[in-house]
Fold:
Amino acid sequence: MDLAQMRQAYEQDGYTQLNATARVCQNVVLAKVAASSLKKNVTVKGGILMCSLSGDARRATQEIDLDFIRYSISDEAIRLFVQKLSEADNSITVKVVGDIEELSQQDYKGKRAHIELSDGKSTFRTKLDLGVNSSLSPEQVAVVLDAFALVPVRNQGSAAEVLLTEPVRESLNSL
Structure:
């Protein structure tokens, strides 16, 4: 995959350079999650899930929001997760850049890793926000997310998020 060509295709579809870059990073990371040995330990959440469910009718998101299931969010475990993503599937490398930060909001505790994706010619940076799915055994629903419209990827959003967003998606589709 060529990151610059992927971004250019999104720009031709009307995305700003910032949003096109974010979209490329999201799709590459999701494709790598789907191809990795840890895919059953990850749920997709936040803006990526909302954009997918709304058919992109919702504003673009800049970060990648994931929850781990039965997987630690220690700095070491996050670095191992990113390493496994880098090893999965294609020729794009992924690495953590800088320190992993603590995130803490009302009822949410998680971590943010700044990551760098490179195809050897272009390098893009994005944020990976990670939490832990609080349910020991979450019911999961398959959500189809596009990975640059060439590689169909199936990732999993939590049932509660899908149930919550389903009426929103139906409303958006009826507009």
